[in-house]
Amino acid sequence: MSSIYNRLGFNSSDPTTANTVTPYTANVVNGMNLLPPLLNSWQTQDIAASDTSGYFVNPVATVTQTITITSGTIASLITANLAGSTGTITTNLQTTKTYANTIYNTTAANYLYITNRQSNVVDPGTDVTTPHYKLAIGVGKMLSYITYQSDGVQNNSPIMGSFTSITLGSTLNTLSSTLSNVTIILANSITPGTGGGGGGGGGSPPTTSISLSDSQLLLSTVQQIYNLMYNYPAQDTQFFANSRSVMDDYHKVSQFSHIGATENYLLNNYIGTPKLLSRFNS
Predict the structure, then answer these.
(1) Degrees to nearest 5, angle at CA 117 with 114 and 118
(2) CB neighbours (10 Å) of residue 81?
(3) Is the residue at 282 inside a domain?
(4) Sign, Cα dihedral of 229, 231, 234, 236
């Protein structure tokens, strides 16, 4: 049976190595027994089996990939000279193409980047401005204590403010389904043009028989997807920046919370500014 100790590979069969070992004294054993458990049973088992990966998943990764593919399809279907049955429909489609292109080329990739970080499926790397699970959880926990004491906050917003992007799965799945369905309608509605259409070569441009309501639904859906994928990461990133700024200020003032007599003497008589002394005496 695997165990954490067996993983260390101590060579107890070698006399020289074995002779370096001495048993703990009774006092040491008693001290060990007084320590609170560092691991529960499943944590112990996973370490013993070296099975400590696969704990995290990005809940919006699949829908983001689906939206990316569908957006690329829309952008390719709506050519620059695609004509609807009315000017309004044509305008709707061209605006849709702009949104779809943006989602396909940048927005979805950026959304996947931040949600991968929030989900802890990638390492933090050198990026310290975009929220990452390991960083934002630690900052958020500390701010939960601080804001409870300073403002009486009794909810988890100091933590969740950095993680709202990964909560959009249900909404995005619904929008993605709608987008896929209307994209099929669009694809089936297009009649290819003949050579030279729109370029003065005697041909005809491609046309679409898509209805006004479907063109409006297509446009509103890509707009909603774009807004979600753009605004929530921006909101999370700003909240994380605000959180780090508050923590920076916390560290600046917390150094004065537990000062000894000598430090108090130095601050009051030599290096403390009138501002600091007024705080001490308030």
Answers:
(1) 85
(2) 14
(3) no
(4) negative
25 and 81 inside one domain: no
Do 118 and 205 lie in one domain? The reply is yes
Cα–Cα nearest to 135, from 224, 247, 215, 34: 247
Give the max Cα distance, the chain: 99
For residues 65 and 158, membership in a common domain is answered with yes
Count of domains forming the chain: 2
Domain with 88, as residue range(s), is 61-254
- Mean per-residue pLDDT for 189-204? 71
Tell me if 268 is assigned to some domain.
Answer: no
Instruction: Give the integer Cα–Cα distance in Å for 258 and 241.
Output: 28
Q: How far apart are CA 222 and CA 241, in angstroms?
A: 29
Task: Check the CA dihedral 126-130-133-137 and report its sign.
Answer: positive
Does residue 261 lie within any of the structural domains?
Answer: no
Answer yes or no: are the C-beta atoms of 222 and 72 closer than 8 Å: no
Same domain, 66 and 193: yes
| Cα–Cα distance list, 53 to 3, 8, 166, 191, 192 (Å) | 17, 19, 20, 51, 51
Residues 27, 76 share a domain: no
Answer yes or no: do 99 and 203 share one domain: yes
Share of the chain above pLDDT 70, in %: 97
Q: What average pLDDT does the segment 216-223 reach?
A: 98
- Which amino acid is located at 54 in the chain? G
Regarding pTM above 0.70, the answer is yes
Lowest mean pLDDT among 8-17, 58-67, 194-203: 194-203
Q: How far apart are the first and last CA of the chain?
A: 63
